[in-house]
Predict the structure.
Amino acid sequence: MSGSAWLLVLALLLVQTGCARSAADKTPLDRGNTNFSWSDLAKTDVNLFIETNQREVIGYIKLLLITLYRRNPNQLLRGTVHHADANVARVFGSFHNWEFAELNHLKGVECIRQAFQDSFDGDRVLAYTVGLGSMVMASYNDKRDFFVLDSLDPQKLYNSARNLELALWLLTQEKDQHGNLFLLSNESDGTVRNLSYERLFGKMIGLQDALSQVVAQKTKRLIKQAFQFLIFLPI
């Protein structure tokens, strides 16, 4: 192939990549495209691994939203949308940039904290999971598609894993002014605890930690280990 032909192919590929990125940014979270496209030629194995990792973690947060509504159906009455399926659809099936008026437009750890404040009179399940989702996506620089020239900060990924650990602690331990848990999660029959939520969070934490190590090796950057006590780390 001649030099001019190669330049034409490269130009077309770059245009396709740009279009793909623009489309992905406005694609609902649960409709990620796993089929081959020409823009995939501009992706490395690490890029594809990042995208797969992200889809897995977001998928677990979606599952968390569904299961928390089953345990806390009363939270639906506190929000503006009173059906669990409708809330799942609008969080993971529409483009919203993680901004919801009923959550005071808060994102990330601020939205997570809001779910455990006595003064908050809205849907705590929605606040909690939107906070988790937006926090995790921030560790990916709020991108959905990754190409050769893209890079992530391994420290952000590591910090997000630690924040997930703290978010789990809040879910299982934080109580309101009357001594009741803000949100019900694990069940117990009196002798054996159902640790399904711990397992779910364990998967998300493991994925974020593993990716942070992969990115750190790729970018030759060190991760600063942190020991936080009830303090969310910056993303």
Q: What stands out?
A: DSSP finds seven helices and no strands in the chain. The chain has a mean pLDDT of 87.
